[in-house]
Each structure stands twice: as structure tokens, then as C-alpha cells.
Amino acid sequence: MIRAATPSDVPVILGFIRDLAAFEREPDAEKATEASLHAALFGDRPAAEAVIAEDGAPLGFALFFHNFSTWTGKRGLYLEDLYVTPATRGRGVGTALLRHLAGIAVDRDCGRFEWSVLDWNADAIAFYRAMGAVGQEEWTVQRVEGVALARLAGRD
Length: 156
Fold this sequence. Notes:
Largest sheet: 5 strands, mixed
Strand order of the largest sheet: 1-2-3-4-5
Radius of gyration: 16 Å
Strand content: 15-25%
Order of helices and strands: EHHEEEHEHH
């Protein structure tokens, strides 16, 4: 079963995020707190949404938000995180989460459904290709954060 996350799911979501950060070899990069997640998901101006996959207990989650494509003239759905517990991988949970989000994208008339994947995660890339995803090899992600972000904003 996949359902929309509720405020009571915030500790579970944070646990999944921490597990994902460890899997992605970046455990120290994760800085989210229950308070920051609650505000982002359920505050006055939610920045993102989440769904939980469960079968008596949480099995995984997906966190997503809308972006916008000037080329399609429509908003898109961007998957920030998809995580399935190691014990339940290979049982269709990830597929169910992706299909659920694809349904949300279609229902909301999104022009695209997209996400990023680490280039070393061959299992995930193969899974995404099997689901119909096409890599955007000609595009690279650019990021400004921390001190560089403050400097760019003229606030250093």
C-alpha cells in the first residue's frame, strides 16, 4: 500500500533519509531535522510532498516536489529521494512507488517526471531504465551551497 505521508511519519521519513545518506556514502552530509522536515512537508508553505510504502510497517518512501519546464510550458514532478529498505528490495516496492508518482504526474498534467541518480549506482540505473527512464547524459547538475551560496547572493 502507498499512501500520502502524514505529520506522524516525519520520524520514519527522517530515518529513511539517514539510511539513504549512508547508502550514498554521505552520512555526514545529511542535516535534516524532524522540525525542518515537518515545516517542509506540512508547514504553511509546503516545499515538498512524500508518500510511504507500507505493509504493516513502513517499507520505503518517496519525496517529491514540482518544478517547471519552459520548454513544455508545464510543471513537472521531480523525485528528490526514493528509498526502499534493504530487506524489502526486489519485492516491487520501488516499482510501486515510481508507478504511484507517475500517476500523480499524469493526474496533475505534468509534462515530465524526472530525478537524478548517482553515476556509480548501476543497480538503480538499470532499474530506472527497465521502468522506461532515459538518461540525460548531456546535462550535468550544477550546485551552489553554503559559503559559495552566500557569496553569490552578495551576503558574505
